[in-house]
Amino acid sequence: MMLSSSQQERQKEQEEEIKVGLDFLISHFSSPLFPRTISSEKTEDSQIPVSSREEALTYYRKSEFKDCKINAFYYSKLEDTTIGGLFWHPDLIFIDLDLQDFKSEKALQFALAKTLKNIADKLGSNSAVPTVLHSGGGYHVIQPVDCPVPLESIKNIKEFTEIPNPSEIFLRFAKDFLSNGKADKKNNPSFKSCMLRIPGSINSRRNGKKVRIIQRWNGYMPRITKELIIEFQRYLIQKKIHKKIEQEKIDRERQARRKQLPAGYNMNYYEWIEKLLDTGIEDCRKTCVGLILAPYLIHVKGLSFETSRQIIKNWLQKCDSLRKLDRGFDSRIRDALRSSQSNQIGPMSREKIKVDSTYNTLLNLLVSKGVLN
Predict the structure, then answer these.
(1) Which of 100, 210, 224, 272 has the most crowded Cβ, counting Cβ within 10 A?
(2) Among residues 182, 184, 181, which one has the least CA distance to residue 194?
(3) What are the Cα distances from residue 165, in Å, to 91, 93, 233?
(4) Do both 183 and 284 map to the same domain?
(5) Prediction pTM value
């Protein structure tokens, strides 16, 4: 279908606006600028690595500039978090303040003002002026910081050997600490998934509102202060204590399960999985099918392959109504059930989801849905 001259002109203006917005965000990033992952409406929230600004714009154009995002940190194929920590520095703080988490617009504005004051105060200089974007449903605060080395190389942080990748954990600590705990709890930034909306793009989940620049970063990168590192140490100490308590709980429950009769199971222990089967979720469906539902239905409930397959299919229909499933889930269900039949591994426990940072997204999702508390 041919576009009218006025439509072509609007499209050209919008593309120019996206280019300007993308260049503005890139100015916040440390080298190397590329490769970097992006996403848009057409990528259905999947992250696509791109090697240039022009390649990113190609994807944004195909999505008609809807839900255009770029990762705040460069792309690496390295999976080892320890090695990754040597490459990535936590040199950008991202704070998401979502209107849905506040009683009123006034409360949101107050939280934003307090967050900006904390950034000025806690980073050791009133010169810190971060970028503030209106995302369509709240505010995104973006503050580049001077962090010349990964936090793993700092002596007092090295001591926390049982906590992997402190540099990445710092991103989550900072967003909570600087927002007084008001930042969106469902948004847990990481080096591989710290997606920033492009100014000028359209937020399709917020009635098609445009992402707007409310305040521009002044180019100043405050150094991460000694005081902030001390606060981070306290945070890690609490995390270490909490992890120890959770591990002791896992050990106690594991011992208790060993004493159970092989033919039976504790319904109270698995009640959360039954809740999950009644609850559709928007993300982490593959993890749930492979590590939780298939082994639960096969090993714990002792159901047949076909009955288990139908139960999972019914659950996925609930999930699909919230966000469309990827193709190929039928074969994924069969593979997961076959894998469960061929081994004796039970479903992943709720305790592991809580203590293993790999499953933070899943944990936040299950808590928000009332499946876990």
Answers:
(1) 224
(2) 184
(3) 14, 16, 14
(4) no
(5) 0.68
